Structure formats: structure tokens, C-alpha cells
TrEMBL record:
Family annotation (InterPro entries): TF_fung, Zn2-C6_fun-type_DNA-bd_sf, Zn2Cys6_DnaBD
GO-annotated cellular components: nucleus
Ranges where the Zn(2)-C6 fungal-type domain occurs: 8-39, 56-87
Chief localisation class: nucleus
Protein name: Zn(2)-C6 fungal-type domain-containing protein
Keywords noted in UniProt: Metal-binding, Nucleus, Transcription, Transcription regulation
Subcellular location: Nucleus
GO molecular function, one term: zinc ion binding
Length: 652
């Protein structure tokens, strides 16, 4: 049997050959006729009490020498400098994956079990109490002690007064970020986490920290794509420069596994973190790639976060809230760049929590801060904006569109009637001002998003109450929107002609589909206006006929490869409108040949035409963000339009 060199004879070891032991000589020595066959057993290395480099004394660390646990250590004694043997204070704790993931109750030092009665706040935390909560508020999370509730002032009033969701219960311990839910969450069921270790990291993250966060990312977000390259077309110029960043944004990207900060711009040093928390926003730069990740992070997680993962929903929602609180303290309505970043961060947060009822409740409270005092950015009733920064205007309108859509989502998700009434009032008050700005400063993507949102709003209000009882201000809003849509469709037709003249087939295909989508939603809106205002039905009928004629002209001669995602969205729009007409006919028992029946036939014909022209594919989820967000959900086969490979299948 072959032996290792450690127990081979000296001759075999020197010649580096196999040594087959035999008594008294090995087999190879017998073959060679060697009389002496000497075995020498190697000695094992002495075990020394050495420390890791992070725990060594400062002189040994500087000299890169080994250091033991003695005081003075052996390295300093050998160097004849025992008086210089000084140990640094322990390094700040960096959370490991097992300390972040709430998978089990036995391996979570930071996240206490749900049955624990109390906890202590780290006194050395560099994060101020106002950014998250007070000690009294944190203590209110445990037991039956009273907890403070956040009720931002604004036109919507207190969110907690109109919403009382059903009690929530989580089988596994979760991260209790703040007690701002008030009475919405049962007391004594949510554990507490020391947020200071999760928010601020001191210095550049080490390689071990990056590996740890990569494990966290793969466990929490297994389906997030590595780095989708999506241009920020709705912000105009892709190289927009924003001059501020926040610890909340830093934490957001660490949770997403984006820890290689060299690719994203300047990393926040401890000095800059301290200056940032003290209100000094100078010297902190946000790279465009960093800004790009803010948007894509929220988009990709909008369909991943479910009720089954409340820890991450609460965590991200809490950062949205804390960011707005800090923003209200730092900015007094003068810092435009900071407002733009805040709005973009709110957009990402809205996308993140939109599919969670708990997150929607928290977002409702966060939106109250948006509309409180100096934080109101969108002018009411079409007044000219008090700012000249076009990027700021675009970001403002985008954030308000998503803010209002979350109102709609929250109302349709089982909210109480009082809250629904408040949402209805907010729609009436805000829509005229929003859409007067929307069609002036926003690019094509945002306008299409606004069209889809209006369709949902109209259908929501139709189901909410009798359309004939709509007040005059809502009619004014619909008329303003219809006029803007007409102008928008005319502009698209002009651009379509320009693309066809220069031979740009790809651009013409996209614009043609945009025209079809715009005109189709305009027809649906005209239907709704006719339902709301019976006296205007004659005018509405004529407008609808013109719209349907344009739809027919645009649809003629369209090749299959010209079909884009707009057509798929349009198909679902007609299908939804057809179902609404069928339900209305059944409720009212309308006879065939009536006006309502005629419009039902028009919609059915348009839907049948779309079915004939479109390929047999599953369309993306139809929301106001169907063109932007990831439409995937658990168990579905909806395409991810953020992936360029999937866009080719839809002609984009």
C-alpha cells in the first residue's frame, strides 16, 4: 500500500517515489539492495494561541506580525517594545445572514422571539431617535403598553381613523420596525430589532460582508435579475445628476445584494454619514446608476413581496416613512434635488409595497406626509407650478400618479367605506391639476401610464356609486382629460407620419400601437362621460364614432411583427370593458337595440378584431404600471418586460 511522504522512508522521500513499507525494509529498498531503510516520523506543528488580525494589537497589526493573547504580547516582547502593546476597541458588529433572515427562532440574536417581553436599545447607535422612533414608542411594541401612532397632517386626515384592518398574525418572528401602525397591529406579537446595526455600516464593506449580503440577497430575493439595463425614459435625460443620498437608500441596495459600491458612485464614509444625519447634505453624490437601481429595485419587487413575507414589507415601508420624516426636517421647500430624490424613492417604495395590504396601509400614512404643509409639490386645479426644473415636474407627476393608484389599490383591497369616501374626494381634488401638468411636461411613457390610470379610476368610480350623481368638478376633470387625450392622439398621428416618411418602421410600429391604445382608452373614457352626464351623450356618441373610425384606419394593414405590448394591453382593456357592459345590461335588464346594447356590440366587435390580429400570448398584468413593472407573480407565466429578451417577443 502506498504511503504518504510523512511516513515514507528517507530514501523514498528524497527520490519522491512511492514507499511500500515492509519489515525490516520497504519493498523498494529491497528491490534496490539497500541495507539501510530509515523511517523518521515528522513532528506536528505546535499549536499557538494566536488571534485573528482584527483582534491583534495595533503594533502587531501594523508590522503584520502574529500576535497572541498576552499583554504584552509575544510580538511586542520580541521587538523589545512591550510598552507599545495596545489593543484597539472591538470592531462594530456586522450582521451575518443568520442574524438577518427571520427563518428560525433559535438563530436570531437581533430579532427577539415573539414571546419576549422586552428589549434594550443600543446606546452607542449613531442613528438619532427621531429618524425611527422614540424609546417610549419602541417599548410600546411589547406587551400591552400604549404605543405612539403616526398620523400625518394633510387633506386626507389621519389614516388610522378611517382604516381598521383585520388582525394580523405571523407564525414566524418578523422585524418590527416602528410602532406607527397604532392599533392596526396586535400588541405583543411583533418582535423588535435594533435598527442601528441594519442601517448604518461603518466604512467600506469587507469581502466577508459582501459575501454575507449576497447570501441574504439570494435567500430573500431569489428571483431578482442581476442588473437589468433599463433607461430612465420617463425622466428625460438618462444621465440625470442628483446631489444627495441617504442611509435609507444605502440600506435598500444592501438588501438587494448591491454591495459593490464602486459601480454605483461614492460610498458613504462614517464622516459623511454623521454629517448627513446632522443635516449637512454637501459632499454626498448619487451616481445615475445608483438612481437607476432605486427605480428597478421597486419595480422588480412589486410582484415578489406578498403577504407571506411581512418582514421585508414592513422593513421597506418603514424606510419610506423614516426618509420622509428626515426630509421634512432637513428640507424646508427649497432643495429641489433633495425633493426629486425623495419622490423617486417614494416611487420605488410604492411599487414595492403595492401588493401587500400591510404595506398599503403604511403607504397611506406615508402619503400623508407628501401632502402635508410645504411638502405639497403638485399644484391644485391646474395652477402653474412654482418651479422651473423640468425633471422635478416629471418626477412630481410620476410620484403623484403612483400615489393615487395606491389609493385605488388600497380602496379595492377591502378598505372601510370611510376610507373609500376619502379616496374618492382625493381623486376629484387632485386629477385636474395632475393632468394639466401631465400632458405638458411628461414624456410618452408617463402619459400612457396616466391614460391607463384614468381608465381604472373611471371604472372604479362607476362601481362606487351612481354615475349620474357625479358632481360638477368630476365632470370638469373628465372633460379636461378628454381634451388632453385628443391633443395627445393628434400629436401621435403627426409623429407617426414623420416616422413613415423617413422609413423608421420600428418607431412607426411603436407609435401606431400607442395611437391605438390612446384612442381606445379615449373611447372608454367617452363611454364613461356619457354614462355620468346624460345630457352630453349626443356629443359623446359623435366623438366615439370618430375614435372608432381612427381605430379602424390604424388597424388596417398592421403586420403581426408590428404588434407591441400596447396592443396586448388594449386587448385586455376591451375585454374588461366588455365584461362591464355585460354586467350593466344584466343589472338593468336592457333590451336589445337600446343605446347601451349598441355600445356593447361596438366593444365586442373591437375585442373580436383584437383577438384575430394578436398572437395567442398571455398579456401582462393590466395596471397603470403595466409598461414598467415586472408582471410576474407566483405560479404565473406573465412576461418580465424589464428583460430585453422578452421585449423582442412583443416587438419592443
Amino acid at each position: 500500500m502506498s504511503q504518504s511522504r510523512a511516513i515514507a522512508c528517507l530514501r523514498c522521500r528524497a527520490r519522491k517515489v512511492k514507499c511500500v513499507p515492509n519489515v525490516p525494509r520497504c519493498r523498494r529498498c529491497i528491490e534496490l539492495g539497500v541495507e539501510e531503510c530509515v523511517y523518521v516520523q515528522r513532528k506536528k506543528r505546535a499549536v499557538r494561541d494566536l488571534l485573528r488580525i482584527g483582534e491583534a494589537c495595533l503594533p502587531c497589526r501594523k508590522r503584520k506580525k502574529k500576535c497572541n493573547a498576552e499583554r504584552p504580547c509575544s510580538g511586542c516582547v520580541d521587538a523589545h517594545k512591550p510598552e507599545e502593546c495596545v489593543y484597539d476597541r472591538p470592531r462594530k458588529f456586522h450582521p451575518q445572514p443568520r442574524r438577518i433572515l427571520p427563518a428560525t427562532t433559535n438563530s436570531l440574536p437581533l430579532v427577539y422571539r415573539s414571546g419576549s417581553g422586552s428589549f434594550q436599545v443600543d446606546s452607542s447607535a449613531s442613528l438619532p431617535e427621531s429618524l425611527f422612533t422614540t424609546k417610549e414608542g419602541l417599548m410600546g411594541l411589547t406587551g400591552n403598553q400604549p404605543s405612539t401612532s403616526f398620523a400625518p397632517a394633510g387633506p386626507a386626515g389621519s389614516a388610522s381613523s378611517g382604516f381598521d384592518p383585520s388582525p394580523l398574525s405571523f407564525e414566524e418572528p418578523v422585524l418590527a420596525i416602528a410602532p406607527y401602525f397604532g392599533d392596526a397591529l396586535p400588541s405583543g406579537v411583533l418582535p423588535v430589532v435594533n435598527c442601528s446595526d441594519l442601517v448604518l455600516w461603518q466604512g467600506q464593506p469587507s469581502y466577508e460582508d459582501q459575501c454575507a449580503l449576497s447570501v441574504v440577497s439570494s435567500a430573500l430575493f431569489p428571483r431578482i435579475p442581476p442588473a437589468p439595463h433599463v433607461p430612465l425614459s420617463f425622466l428625460g435625460e438618462p444621465n440625470i445628476q442628483i446631489s444627495h443620498t441617504t442611509p435609507e437608500l444605502e440600506m435598500t441596495f444592501r438588501l438587494a445584494g448591491l454591495v459593490r459600491m464602486r459601480r454605483m458612485g461614492t460610498y458613504l464614509s462614517p464622516r459623511k454619514q454623521e454629517a448627513l444625519l446632522n443635516g449637512d447634505m454637501s459632499g454626498v453624490i448619487l451616481h445615475p446608476y445608483f438612481l437607476h437601481k432605486v427605480i428597478t429595485f421597486g419595480m422588480h419587487h412589486s410582484s415578489i413581496v406578498k403577504e407571506s413575507s411581512p418582514p421585508m414589507v414592513l422593513l421597506h415601508a418603514r424606510y419610506i416613512q423614516s426618509f420622509w420624516e428626515k426630509l421634512a426636517d432637513i428640507s424646508q421647500g427649497n432643495d429641489c434635488d433633495l425633493k426629486v430624490q425623495a419622490l423617486l424613492f417614494l416611487v420605488a417604495g410604492c411599487l414595492f409595497v403595492r401588493q401587500s395590504r400591510v404595506g398599503a396601509l403604511y403607504l397611506w400614512k406615508a402619503c400623508g406626509v407628501v401632502n402635508a404643509g410645504e411638502m405639497r409639490f403638485v399644484p391644485r386645479y391646474g395652477h402653474p407650478p412654482p418651479y422651473s426644473d423640468e425633471v422635478h415636474e416629471r418626477s412630481t407627476v410620476l410620484s403623484q400618479l403612483i400615489w393615487m393608484e395606491n389609493y385605488l389599490f388600497l380602496a379595492c383591497d377591502g378598505a372601510r367605506p370611510k376610507l373609500t369616501k376619502r379616496i374618492e374626494e382625493e381623486f376629484r381634488n387632485e386629477l385636474p391639476g395632475i393632468y394639466s401638468v401631465l400632458f405638458q411636461v411628461c414624456p410618452l411613457t408617463m402619459r400612457t401610464q396616466g391614460i391607463l390610470l384614468v381608465r381604472d379610476v373611471v371604472l372604479f368610480l362607476e362601481e362606487l356609486q351612481n354615475p349620474e350623481a357625479m358632481p360638477g368638478d368630476w365632470k370638469q376633470s373628465c372633460d379636461l382629460l378628454a381634451s388632453s387625450l385628443d391633443d395627445y392622439s393628434d400629436m401621435l398621428m403627426i409623429r407617426l407620419g414623420e416616422c413613415e416618411n423617413v422609413g423608421d418602421k420600428e418607431g412607426a410600429s411603436i407609435i401606431r400601437s400607442s395611437c391605438i391604445s390612446c384612442l381606445a382608452h379615449l373611447a372608454v373614457l367617452y363611454h364613461s362621460i356619457g354614462e355620468m352626464q346624460p345630457r352630453a351623450r349626443t356629443t359623446v356618441d359623435g366623438l366615439c364614432d370618430a375614435v372608432l373610425d381612427n381605430l379602424g384606419n390604424l388597424s388596417q394593414g398592421m403586420e403581426l411583427e408590428d404588434v407591441t405590448v400596447f396592443d396586448l394591453v388594449l386587448k385586455v382593456s376591451w375585454e374588461k370593458a366588455l365584461k362591464i357592459y355585460d354586467s350593466r345590461l344584466n343589472e338593468l335588464s336592457v333590451e336589445e337595440g337600446s343605446e347601451l346594447w349598441r355600445w356593447r356590440c361596438v366593444v365586442a366587435e373591437a375585442y373580436a378584431d383584437m383577438e384575430r390580429r394578436l398572437p395567442k400570448r398571455e398579456p401582462p398584468i393590466l395596471t397603470s404600471l403595466a409598461l414598467l413593472e415586472d408582471g410576474r407573480s407566483e405560479g404565473s407565466r406573465y412576461p418580465n418586460l424589464m428583460n430585453p429578451a422578452n421585449r423582442k417577443d412583443y416587438g419592443m
